[in-house]
Amino acid sequence: GHLDPGSRRKVLMKTGLILLIVGHLNFITGALVHGTVLRFVVTARDATSLHYGVTNTASVIAALLTISCGVSALLLSRYLGPAALKWALLALSACCGLCCLCCLLGLLAAVGLTLGNQGRVLLAPCSVANIALAPVSRECPFDPTRVYSSTLSLWAVSLLLEAMEIFFSIRCLLLTLDLLRL
User: Fold this and answer.
1) Of 32-41, 120-129, 166-175, where does mean pLDDT reach its minimum?
2) What would be one Pfam family of this protein (predicted)?
3) How many other β-carbons are positioned within 10 Å of the β-carbon of residue 123?
4) Is residue 52 over pLDDT 90?
5) 138 in a structural domain
6) Whether the predicted pLDDT of 66 surpasses 70
7) 20 to 30 A Cα–Cα from 47, which one of 57, 58, 89, 144?
């Protein structure tokens, strides 16, 4: 059914706010993964670490897209008039949904690869002898016992946020389609 402008505004505003929050959270998660683990790993040049790097970069881009989508939704909820704004939001939410879907798949693959190789690529910066030693040695930039679980749990958080981003950007897309009466 068609909503009246007042409730449309509210739904758009809520959706925009949620997108903003989720986008920021995902951006932070991506930054944490990069800062704590990936910046040491991506130097080890092989397909898996390249995949990690690409996926993480894509996550950050998706997060920025989500944030801009949220901002546009909030703008549109204030000014329902401008057609250009509606088209911009339509394009943004479509791109956002697609980009987040790609990230979701990429992250799933990263988690799969990591579980498959028992975190060998994550631990690549540490020489094998040191993995047995719990304390952080000079050769190992992080605590090898925790890096595996913390990376996987950050990725799990990221997956959840990514799924939320997809859901709300699709909702945003549908709202915009309704506003454009397509």
Assistant:
1) 120-129
2) BCLP
3) 23
4) no
5) no
6) yes
7) 144
Q: What is the pTM of this model?
A: 0.79
pLDDT at 151 (0 to 100): 84
- Please write the tens of the pLDDT for every residue from 106-148: 899 988 888 888 777 777 766 554 444 444 445 666 666 677 7
**Could you give the number of structural domains in the chain?**
1
**For residue 159, which of 97, 95, 115, 101 has the smallest C-alpha distance?**
101
Within a domain: 127? no
Q: Which two tokens stand for residue 160?
A: 């959840």
- Mark residue 104 as left, alpha or beta (left: phi above 0; alpha: psi -120 to 50; beta: remaining): alpha
**What distance in Å separates the CA atoms of residue 85 and residue 1, rounded to the nearest whole number?**
23
> Look-up: residue for tokens 């939704």?
73
Question: In terms of residue numbers, what domain contains 31?
Answer: 5-111+147-180
Instruction: Classify residue 28 by burial, with Cβ atoms within 10 Å: 0-12, 13-18, 19+.
Output: middle
Cβ(92)–Cβ(82) under 8 Å? no
Residue 124 domain-assigned? no
**Which phi and psi (to 5°) does residue 124 adopt?**
-55, -40
